[in-house]
Every structure is written in structure tokens, then in C-alpha cells.
Amino acid sequence: xxxxxxxxxxxxxxxxxxxxxxxxxxxxxxxxxxxxxxxxxxxxxxxxxxxxxxxxxxxxxxxxxxxxxxxxxxxxxxxxxxxxxxxxxxxxxxxxxxxxxxxxxxxxxxxxxxxxxxxxxxxxxxxxxxxxxxxxxxxxxxxxxxxxxxxxxxxxxxxxxxxxxxxxxxxxxxxxxxxxxxxxxxxxxxxxxxxxxxxxxxxxxxxxxxxxxxxxxxxxxxxxxxxxxxxxxxxxxxx
Length: 239
Description:
By secondary structure, the protein is mainly alpha-helical. The protein is built from 15 helices and no strands.
């Protein structure tokens, strides 16, 4: 056993001990790991999220250097538990720790490469860290050729939506309305829906009235999902 990284190895073994072959096969289909799909080549153990969360709590004392071993793993659940560790350490950390974790996150996006990994983590780390700083990193990610960086850009704004600040969500959405990928259509629609839910339907409608023609059908349907039937049909027919 590599003594330098013994704790990471212990976590890896604990994850593998709960591997489920049948669930693994289901996950690899569900998360699109086939040839030409967005997660081609990703390797799953077949674990449920609560199992991974439980292990993240059990091994919460892991050092940041060991977390990096897991974050750069080829195994999906190892990257997922690494992100849970980073979120926990970010919440408990001082300003220096927060910056270190943010920097790790932003320079390791090649490993944060599926929608569940992004959605689990970016709000709590990227959104939180940039709260009182320039949002330029999110604007840059919104224009990235990397699908997951674009998704990070829009989902990170959930942090601000929950604080009733929606302007950045609209700005990032503007950059992504013409995106070709279904996972971005869904992410933008989801965040727009959350603006309507938390900040007010009138605010969302104001955005939709200006931009609905630029949206994919998927984005529009996600955005208006909580509307009453008559209002949903109004926007769908306008399209």
C-alpha cells in the first residue's frame, strides 16, 4: 500500500466494497458512457448517492492532497466523493482554504465531467466563492468549448438565485440560449424556472417575453414548468 496516499486508498476500497454490477450497467447507460456519447469511457461502480454521501461523512478527515487523488480518478464515484469532500472542507475552511479549493475546482474541470458532478458541487464552491468577487470566471466558462464548464457557468448562479439575485442568471443564460447541447438547454431552463419560483413569475415572464424565440423548446419547457396550464400554453403557442 502506498503509505503517502493510504487514506485515499482506504476510501477507494470502501467504495469498491459497495460496487453493484447490475447498478453499474444501468448507470453506464443512464449517464451516456457509450461511444460518441457525452460521458464516453466513464467508469461506474454502481453506487447510489446516499451510499457515497455516507462514506464522505465517514472519511471527512481526509487531507486535501488525498482528495486530489480521488478527484483525478477514472472512476465516477471516486470523483463524486472527492467533490463531497471539497464541499465539506470549503464550508468549514478559512479564507485561504476556500481559495485553495476554488482554485483546485477551476483547474480540474476536466474531471468534473458529468451533469451530476457539476450539479452537486459548483453552486457550493464556485458560486459561493465568487459571491463578492468578479463574476468574470463564470462569463468565461459560459463561452467555453467544454460542455461541463458551460454547465458550471449557469448552475453556479443557483447560489445567487437562492439569495434573490437573478441578473447574473439572465446574463449567463443569454450567452447559452443558442447552445447546441441538450444538457445546456435543460440547465438553462432549470435555472430560469428557479428564478420564477424564488424571485417571482413576473420577473421570469419579463425575460421570456424578450427571449422566448431564441430558446430551444427544451429550455422553454423547463422554464415554464411551474406555470399554470393556461400560461404554459400561452408561451408554447407563442413559440
